[in-house]
Structure formats: C-alpha cells, structure tokens
Specification:
Layout (H helix, E strand, L loop, with lengths): L1 E7 L3 H13 L2 E7 L3 H8 L6 E2 L12 E4 L6 H11 L5 E4 L5 H10 L5 E3 L1 E3 L20 E5 L4 H13 L3 E5 L1 H33 L9 H9 L4 H10 L1 H23 L3 H20 L13
Parallel strand pairs: 1-2, 1-4, 2-3, 4-5, 5-6, 8-9
Antiparallel strand pairs: 7-8
Length: about 300
C-alpha cells in the first residue's frame, strides 16, 4: 500500500501499528524514530528489517506516510522537521486523543503544501511500551478520522486504518472532543480521583485498605495505571469540554448524595435502574461482552 512509512514514537500504539503493518504487508519499508534506547532494543526484536533513524532529516524526504505516535505535547517540536524535509506527496497522521488542539496546531505551524489527516484509534491499554504492542490491537475497534478537503489523501488514511482492522468514522474536531470528553476522558479522570481518594482514606485511617480492593476499586485502578504524560496532555488540551463534563458529573454526584442523605428510595432506585440500561446497550453494540465480571476469568 505504501513504499515507505515512518512511525515517530513507538510505544504501545506505535509498536502495534508497526506490527499491524508488518502483518498486513502494507509497506515495503518501515522507518522508526524513537528516542528511548530501551524501546529501540525491544522494537528490534519485532523485525530485523526495520530502519531506525537517529534524526528527522533528509532521510524522510520520500516517506509516503508519517504516523505521529508520541505524546501530543511533542507535536510542536516535530513539525519544523516535517516542514523542512517532507515533500508535498507525503501524508501525516497521528493517534492523539484530542483533535481541536491538533487541528489548530497544524493550521498554524504546518506548511500549507503538506497534508495532515487527523486520526484517533479508539484502542489501547493501561500499560505502555512496545513490549505490550499487538498486531491485532485495532481489530474491530473504532478509529475516528477528522474530515479533510484533500479527499484523495483522506481516503488513503481511511483505507490504511481499515486494512489494520479498524471501523472508521468521520467527525469534525469539535464533535470529536465533546464526545470523548464524556466517553473516555472523564472516566479516566474519575478513576484517577477515586484512587487518590482511596489513598487519602488509607492515610487518614492508618489502615491498608487497598489490600481489600473489591471489583470496583480493582477495575478503576487498572484505568488509573494509564500513562500520566498522555493523560495530562488530554486533560489540558480538552480543557473546555473537561470542565463542562466535570461540572455535569459534580451536579449528578451531589444529586446522588442528596438521595442518600434523605433515604430517597424512589429517586435513587430510578437512577440505578436507568444506569443499568447503558451496560446492556454497550453489549448490544458489541463494545464489550456480556460475560459476568467484565469478561475476566
């Protein structure tokens, strides 16, 4: 599909894209730009034919597809190299979890003859690093692609994600960031806050309560183990939508608090019952399986 693909940043997502490209034979040559020596040694075990770049220089001049798979805070530092060395036929895409900030960045900083098609594969894990990458990480997972006026290059990026197994949907940046503020970003923030609260509780009561983690705390702890740099970037870059959904969440939390204080059986049970419907809907949409204990053995 491509002659040369360059992956910049090769952690969990980048190495999974690498594995998927090799598995599907989507590129003749794969270049990697990765600063971590530990990551490089792990990536070398995936395939000996991978070409590692020490710099983003003239060696990237004829690359067909560039995939940015670094924390979003690194994008601005990378753009000058892309501006200097890429040719107008190249396509840039990324895997960032927020899109308005990336769209604005590329409009301001990227040379106008270069094309950046924004992507967000909805896949990943709480673990990070290339040792956790999987060739089928994107199988039957959503990949949101931001609409672009360059239809030819847009279709190439759509086909790329489809070929590595993703279900593709097109959105605009504003729509994307609003949706994922509630479906992804807020749940992660809640997980971090719950674990922080458990730590505070443990400190105040001077007892090791973590050892008695029930299913709820256990599952939240998995989410809260996610990469802190990535999630800092997400929270900051989606600030407006995050504040909005945090306010909404706080309002609902106070409503639950009021129901409990007043022993309001009717309204509390109604909320609990209505919440169960969402789980059923998620299973029906094949976003999870119906097996008890969230599919765990």
């Amino acid at each position: 599909m491509f002659n040369k693909v360059l992956i910049i940043g090769c952690g969990l997502i980048g190495s999974s894209i690498l594995r998927a490209i090799k598995n599907k034979k989507l590129a003749r040559n794969i270049y990697i730009f990765e600063k971590s020596k530990k990551h490089i040694s792990l990536i070398k075990k995936i395939n000996k034919k991978i070409i590692f770049l020490k710099k983003l220089d003239h060696n990237i001049s004829d690359v067909d597809l560039v995939v940015l798979s670094t924390p979003m805070s690194s994008y601005e530092k990378i753009i000058p190299n892309l501006n200097t060395f890429l040719n107008k036929k190249s396509i840039i895409t990324d895997v960032g979890s927020t899109k308005e900030n990336v769209y604005n960045l590329k409009e301001k900083k990227l040379k106008k003859y270069l094309t950046w098609i924004l992507s967000h594969p909805i896949s990943g894990s709480e673990v990070s690093g290339p040792q956790h990458g999987k060739k089928n990480l994107f199988e039957n997972k959503w990949c949101v692609i931001i609409k672009d006026k360059n239809k030819t290059k847009l279709n190439k990026v759509i086909n790329f994600w489809k070929k590595i197994g993703s279900n593709v949907i097109l959105m605009n940046p504003n729509e994307h960031d609003k949706i994922f503020a509630i479906t992804s970003h807020l749940p992660h923030l809640i997980a971090y806050n719950l674990i922080k609260t458990a730590q505070d509780f443990q400190k105040i009561n001077k007892k090791n309560v973590i050892q008695f983690s029930a299913g709820g705390l256990r599952d939240f702890s998995r989410i809260a183990a996610s990469n802190e740099i990535m999630w800092r970037d997400v929270f900051f870059n989606n600030k407006k939508n995050m504040i909005s959904v945090i306010n909404m969440f706080t309002k609902n939390l106070n409503s639950f608090k009021k129901n409990i204080q007043n022993l309001d059986d009717k309204h509390l049970r109604r909320k609990l019952f209505n919440s169960k419907k969402v789980r059923k809907q998620i299973v029906q949409l094949k976003q999870d399986i119906a097996k008890p204990d969230f599919g765990r053995e």
